[in-house]
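job 3f2a | input accepted
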Amino acid sequence: MLLELRHVSKRYGAMMVVPDLSLSVAEGDFVGVIGPNGAGKTTVFGLISGGLRCDAGAVVLGGLDVTALGADERCRAGIGRTFQIPHPFQGMTAYENALVAATFGAGLRGRQAQALARDAIERCGLEAAADILAARLTLLQRKRLELARAIATRPRLLLLDEVAGGLTDGEMNQLLQLVVSIHRSGVTVLWIEHLVHALVSAAGRLVVLADGRLLSDGDPGSVMQDRAVRETYLGSDIDEELTHAEH
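job 3f2a | predicted structure (247 res):
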């Protein structure tokens, strides 16, 4: 297994957000993660990436226990992530943002870092915007830059947190195809998204969280028909998402 969460838990004060979660992701998987607001999805990503510390349990990456490692060390170990709201360095160009990721995330220097940054920019369709300040990019370009910065760290595991949020259907489809191409290049993908039909069309496996617990886990078709999942999403929402996926 590439990633294992072994009985991890996280609380904020008196509020238990993730009570006792175990989850495994094999190398090469494309796993979609869904759940209602407050389900603990982003908290789980924080526990995986090192932005948050587990109160109990262990995070294992490629057989190595990384529970005690910080976010920077986990990044260099092969965990890349994006955020719901893009966080580029506003005063740097798109290329410079990718170069920072290649330098400090992948640990490269000089021409190697420059080549990796250029490749990330090109793969994410930002060649024409490479020399534009991040503050001046469109929302779609900033989303693409989030991906470029993440893959410039040379991740084995890519965590995507609602990277399609705020985009039009056409823009979302462009981004979806980009994520699929990244996955096909050999990167394992774990993707949180409210646009469930996007995940159903691309992921080979769907995980549903509710109250920090695993509600359902399996192939997308079976999970979307799960009675507990349908009740969590109030039925009609699931039907609408399935209609989207079929078309």
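job 3f2a | Strands lie at 3-12, 15-25, 30-34, 56-61, 64-65, 79-81, 157-161, 188-192, 205-210, 213-218.
job 3f2a | closed
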